[in-house]
């Protein structure tokens, strides 16, 4: 028999109950989330938290009045769910997710709200639609991989997605826009910062400061966006760590690694219809290529891999490919042109000495299970007196005179 207790977390018991999703208070995202919560509590945000008899978190739900939602939605008069997460330990307790949703519905009824709304996704870092639909919710809208579900309680206007496409153009160069609503993102930001620094790319990081800015974020996830010259590359962080470890194991030298594209697959693979393509150039002993292929194919997150010889490419051509976002057709044309001028002058190298390029089709539906890695920002000892380190503040399109500051993200060690 498993015992669990439901607790409502607010300003008075936050220090005792914690934030739910992270227990390690030395994690770089923990204190950033604490500071963020202390400001949001005044807006009506609360956390419903199930704990076991030892006070270990089992499941939690974070909700807020819709007008203060940190997602690109208009949901005035509704109660909005940011997060619903049943931790692995909580999965041994039957029905915790459903109990949290029902408790949230009761709260909305007591407060006279129009109903409850949430953004769902079968991708990463969000609750899937299934648990909501099974508890009486209805999907009323869909954008890309995201759905908007509602549980109406009273008559009134329904929530709706905001238009995020128009919000991307003001972010030039390589840019991350994120918020401390998700404490996991500090590590993600530092990982991307490190990769950008390694390849000589200038990365700008903007931290969203309030709900209005988050509602005007450049992606439907709202709390994380990776952009290149106004184009959304990813609405969630795609880890490079797995690929680096594979190549390191084979004693390969990474020349460059970057996200190539995210698109619908020509046909379903292992039940997946979309994939994220990663393009990596590396040098390796030719005898190790088979080991690299085997290790990549063992990953549950990688659907397909194709490794090709790139000994016909010049260093200049590789550098251009590594620093330019372009279609695979354009890249192949550049390679073919280069090959036409170098094939006669350059003899074929032995397999053991060849440079190699790997194109990996990656399905980013499930986050990697890896231990938290401390980020560059130090955790404050006293959350009541010390402000956390901050990145730059996002520009609110509703306030055109507001100055937007941008800083270069520093590489974490």
CATH architecture of the largest domain: 3-Layer(aba) Sandwich
Q: Regions with pLDDT < 50 over 5+ consecutive residues?
A: 325-335, 339-413
CATH superfamily of the largest domain: Gcn5-related N-acetyltransferase (GNAT)
Quote the CATH topology of the largest domain: Aminopeptidase
Q: How much beta, percentage-wise? A: 25-35%
Percent range of helical residues? 10-25%
Kindly provide the name of the CATH class of the largest domain. Answer: Alpha Beta
The helix tally amounts to: 10
Give the SSE map.
Layout: E1 5-9, H1 14-17, H2 28-40, E2 46-51, E3 57-65, E4 73-74, E5 79-86, H3 96-110, E6 115-121, H4 130-133, E7 138-143, E8 146-152, E9 160-161, E10 174-178, H5 185-198, E11 203-207, H6 211-215, E12 224-228, E13 231-234, H7 241-249, E14 253-269, E15 272-283, H8 289-298, E16 302-309, H9 315-323, H10 328-342, E17 355-362, E18 392-393, E19 407-408
Parallel strand pairs: 5-6, 10-11, 11-18
Antiparallel strand pairs: 1-2, 2-3, 3-5, 4-9, 6-8, 7-8, 10-12, 11-19, 12-13, 14-15, 15-17, 16-17
